[in-house]
Amino acid sequence: MRARAQLLSNIHEFCDCTRGFYTSLQVQPPLITSSDCEGAGEVFTVAPRGDSNTLPSSKKVEQHYFKDPKYLTVSSQLHLEAFSAELGDVWTLSPTFRAEQSDTPRHLSEFYMYEAELRGVENLHAVMITVQNGLKMLVTKLRNSPQGKELREYYENRQRQPEEEEIDLYDRWNRLIVGRWEIISYTEAMTELAKAYQADRGIFEHAPTWKKGLQLEHEKWIVAVLGQGRPIFVTDYPRALKPFYMLPSNSQGEHDGGETVACFDLLFPFGYCEIAGGSLREHRLENLIKNMRQQGMLKKKDAGSSAPDLVHNASSPLSNYPFLEPGEDLGNLKWYADLRRYGSSPHGGFGMGFDRLVAYLTGVSNVRDVVPFPRTWGRADC
């Protein structure tokens, strides 16, 4: 907890000089949301205790406390984009919730995520540099702090070393601080994975396939071999594997008919793998709505709706909502589309799993052991 507190302080210090232009503003986005952001559906639904029969008679017609289903946030990104549109660079460190049925040392149902949105960025490299510089600063500050000294002294006691693998904190920290981090595209990584699999079929349980994404075993291999045991950025994933809000890659490259998007995952050594992920955001309304349509996110209007279903025509004042087709409705994401409808600019951002970062830096193999009251699949005892 002392190391965690030191890292929190370091994040504040780093964000005071993010990108070297002006202070990045800390904001407080909501925890109850109207969408799942990532589109994965692994969300906790918010509902009052009891059912509609416990509500006053005047409220019984409302089947939900907020009139329609709401969820605990899986990411603050969409709201950060709204803050950023007015305030510039913004960030938050807040609770995040995932209803994944993942019983692993890497997953929690409730965890903290450090997220930032940067206004005006037009290339992915700028976002990755912000992440790299921030992490190097955090680690350097921790190493030179009393908390860092306490951690080193803790592991100098041989009895505190785990049986399966000796913890060398200097090595862990130096892998982040010293030198530059490798950058490789998803397609290049898949090519190298395929070569390794062809040479030795027993190297992976799951055959690497471009359209199916990276398995944990693939990520570990990428870090160990392509990243030489150091952090490595994997960029430009297939659009089909990523959320609707990501901007297409500059290359517009295609592989087996699949477009790629301007995004990255940052993979760490020692099996922690994905620590952070980010992307450029689609800031053009027409393209955003097209993405939502392709991913089945647009709602169908009620048959009894009195609103006209008109196709967008820039010259027609009777148009309903730009770029929607007849019968389509943006539902609970209309406010998000409005950020583009009424003026937008290029922007991008990232999210970083804070608890997983704490685990890596403190030499703890199970992320549950760096959280005082871990919430995991099937367990929230107090």
Rg over alpha carbons: 23 Å
Strand line-up of the largest beta sheet: 1-5-6-15-12-11-8-7
How many DSSP-defined strands?
A: 15
Q: Count of helical segments? A: 10
Order of helices and strands: HEEEEHEEHHHEHHEEEEEHEEHEH
How would you characterize the overall build of this protein?
This protein is of the alpha+beta class. It has ten helices and 15 strands. The chain has helices spanning 2-15, 77-87, 124-143, 146-156, 169-177, 186-199, 216-226, 285-294, 334-341, 354-362, and strands spanning 25-26, 32-33, 45-46, 70-72, 90-97, 110-119, 182-185, 232-235, 254-255, 258-259, 263-268, 273-280, 299-300, 328-329, 347-353. The longest helix is centred in the middle third of the chain and has 20 residues, at 124-143.
How are the elements arranged and paired?
Layout: H1 2-15, E1 25-26, E2 32-33, E3 45-46, E4 70-72, H2 77-87, E5 90-97, E6 110-119, H3 124-143, H4 146-156, H5 169-177, E7 182-185, H6 186-199, H7 216-226, E8 232-235, E9 254-255, E10 258-259, E11 263-268, E12 273-280, H8 285-294, E13 299-300, E14 328-329, H9 334-341, E15 347-353, H10 354-362
Parallel strand pairs: 1-5, 7-8
Antiparallel strand pairs: 2-4, 3-4, 5-6, 6-15, 8-11, 9-10, 11-12, 12-15, 13-14
